[in-house]
Write a structure and sequence with these properties.
globular, alpha/beta, single chain, 2 domains, 16 helices, Nucleotidyltransferase, domain 5, 20 strands, 461 residues, 35% helix, 7-stranded mixed β-sheet
Amino acid sequence: MLIPVIAVFDVGKTNKKLFLFDEQYHIVYEKSARFLETKDEDGDSCENLDSLRLSVFDSLNEVLKINKYDIKAINFSTYGASFVYLDEEGKPLTPLYNYLKPYPKDLEELFYKTHGSPQKIAQETASPASGSLNSGMQLYRIKYQKPDIFQQIKHVLHLPQYMSNLITGKYFTDMTSVGCHTQLWDFNKKDYHQWVYDEQLVEKLPEIFPADDVIEASFMGKTYKTGVGLHDSSAALIPYLVNFKEPFVLLSTGTWCISLNPFNESPLTSQELENDCLAYIAYHGKPVKASRLFAGFELEQQSKRIAAHFKVDALIFRTMPFDAQLAAQLKERFKNEEQASAILPKQSQFGDRDLSSFANEKEAYHQLVADIIDLQSQSTALIIKGSAIRKIFVDGGFSKNTIYMNLLARAFPQIEVYAAAMAQATALGAAVAIHQHWNTKALPNDIIELKYYSVNQPVLG
């Protein structure tokens, strides 16, 4: 008896993975690959689109030969802010430009002079001005720097939809990609921004297809229900949206710590935009207010500084237990130094602290995390304001840091704080998004493991 599964391609900047999930959303097969980056015509690093395309077909061919699984559906999740420009025959016309590619200053100035100030455009599109990270600006650049190529472009697809197109042959746009710091979508009008019409870009953007619907597609003589693909940040939120109905915030942690509030639809204020807030559009089409903090990077750098000063291995911080008494003493000692300003600094004040003022590495590390929590609580509070949030779920690297989790619980005493654990949240979200089309069983309610952190007790398991 073959096991019914869904195949999900999960494409990150570093790792490209293929997962098979069974009907209980357990991973029954996993394959990972890395590709060497290539260079675009300017010598900037970029994704190898040919390798990516071939890997989709090779990987599918490989799993189809395993006489154990019955693939019912296929979906995709990839990083955002990356466009593929296709000609009349569906062939890519350019490299897959990197969203970190420097943006020409003169072109940026022309854009804002023509269409409105950076602040105005940011407010209307819920996208802080970020150069190439705003994928709409990438298309604008092609129009003015490569007009001959622009004329040949028939379809512009974000990367998830290009991956889907490889299987379906269809051209669609997806709201989770368009609605994520692209500067393309006017959140007030719920339509493309006026500048997209003024520059005649709309005709190159295919029709919008629902992220929870499927296309019947044939591959190697068999038909599969195929999703249109999702932006990875939106995909990671889906398991939480289907498992929890009362208002929550998801704090997704890693190098960046991103607070996501699907229950706050109020327009972004100028202060929120200045504090690196933005809005996503979730797979069901509703806005998700978000705030970003570069906290994971800071924790890593400052942990190394502490380790070097006290001559210890930085690895000890990964499993350092929370000392409630020490945390209380440090809070009292530095109570007059907590930061509170209209515009949040990019980093905590720990970088300016003299490490010789701490007795040992344990004391210094507790204060480092406390300083980061001081900023994190303000960043997260920005997107909680005006919504009745009951729970905060923390996933990613910081969810395993008991000092961070306990101090976060103390920073939000009126809200339940949980560490969440889930295998491959992004890929799982892409699978769950089209659950109704391929899975004969009810959605399981145990795909997310939670650990509750109390204000009064260190940890309740």
